[in-house]
Write a structure and sequence with these properties.
Blueprint (H helix, E strand, L loop, with lengths): L3 E6 L3 E7 L2 H6 L7 E3 L2 H10 L10 E3 L1 H12 L3 E4 L6 H12 L2 E2 L12 E7 L5 E6 L13 H5 L1 E7 L6 H16 L3 E5 L3 H15 L3 E7 H8 L4 H9 L2 E7 L5 E4 L4 E4 L12 H13 L5 H16 L8 H8 L1
Parallel strand pairs: 1-5, 1-9, 2-7, 3-8, 5-6, 9-10, 10-11, 11-12
Antiparallel strand pairs: 2-4, 7-8, 12-13, 13-14
Helix pairs in contact: 3-10, 6-7, 7-8, 8-9, 10-11
């Protein structure tokens, strides 16, 4: 039996979350609903200009795959996360936050000089999240940051699509998938963001290679991948690159494919406050479910309930008590 249910690979970002209006996004020429890479100067300028806005979430170790791995761990999965932090206060904070979340990582390794990645998450009144990310040292995440022993001793390797934006990160994602295949570890990937599909599709195809065991995406990413406005055509296109998959559909729930049958997953109606982390929570809960004897339909239901709770509050995380209640 594998030591870890899930081995994650992705960026290490410390999140700051703030309320903004659509007018604020227009004023600062920020494209709504997407993740945009910015330099530190631009991010600092935005934070300075928006610092009067309410900061909701506590500082947290973020990054898409990290959020999923922490969610899986909080449900009770054994988890490992490979990332890159700098020898700075945020880097120390990040690793301590991972440890407190029950996630293993390279806690004793040498930290590099530089700046740990930061993400400014802007929430508009319609609950849409818009992210401006300064990757910092995460931009240089590489094959050297993969813990091959931990990866080989896992049930699933989970790779975030955001790695496509960095040459070394994309190479690390490809290497992680290849190592997983060599060691009979199942492969999972998320498409992460409509912008990744729009601007980096060939890089994502390189990361997916001959195909993955499990793919996560939302409706916009699926439609963008297939170049269609028809969800059935998108589903057919995703079947070409993934043996199984889950497509989240927002207020319409989700569809999951177990390799044989497509299952419609019902939504759980809530008043959405903040959609940041909903897809990450869905993936983490889903992988927990399928590695703990749940069917795809059961795992999808757990993931749908968990994601609905995340959007009902601020931040991409739920309390440990909330995870226990969801399982009960």
């Amino acid at each position: 039996m594998a030591k870890y249910h899930i081995y994650g690979l992705g960026a290490a970002l410390v999140d700051t979350e703030i309320d903004v209006t659509d007018g604020d996004l227009d004023t600062f020429q920020i494209e709504k609903g997407l993740m945009t890479l910015v330099d530190e100067t631009r991010q600092h300028q935005l934070i300075e200009n928006l610092k009067s806005h309410l900061v909701h979430s506590k500082r947290a170790s973020g990054g898409s795959a990290c959020n999923s791995v922490v969610a899986a761990s909080s449900f009770g999965a054994s988890a490992y996360y490979s990332c890159k932090v700098a020898n700075d206060e945020n880097g120390e904070f990040y690793l301590n936050d991972l440890k407190q979340s029950g996630v293993d990582s390279d806690f004793s390794g040498d930290k590099v000089d530089g700046i740990t990645g930061k993400c400014l998450v802007m929430i508009t009144p319609d609950a849409e999240r818009t992210m401006n990310t300064f990757l910092g040292v995460s931009e240089t995440l590489s094959e050297a940051d993969i813990n091959q022993a931990a990866l080989a001793d896992s049930e699933y390797v989970y790779i975030e699509g955001y790695l496509v934006t960095s040459d070394t990160g994309r190479a690390a994602a490809v290497k992680a998938r290849e190592l997983a295949v060599e060691n009979q570890v199942k492969t999972a990937i998320s498409l992460s963001d409509p912008g990744m599909v729009q601007f980096f599709k060939s890089g994502l195809q390189e990361m997916i290679g001959d195909g993955v065991d499990l793919l996560f995406c939302n409706k916009d990413e699926a439609l963008g991948w297939a170049g269609t406005q028809n969800i059935d055509e998108a589903i057919a296109a995703i079947k070409q690159v993934a043996t199984t998959f889950a497509i989240t559909l927002g207020a319409e729930g989700a569809v999951v494919f177990d390799g044989h049958q497509l299952h419609r997953i019902k939504p759980y109606a809530v008043k959405a406050i903040d959609t940041n982390g909903a897809g990450d929570m869905f993936a983490g809960a889903f992988i927990y479910g399928i590695t703990h004897n749940m069917s795809f339909a059961e795992a999808g239901d757990l993931a749908s309930r968990a994601a609905s709770q995340v959007v009902a509050g601020y931040g991409p995380r739920l309390s440990l008590e909330a995870h226990k209640t969801l399982l009960a």
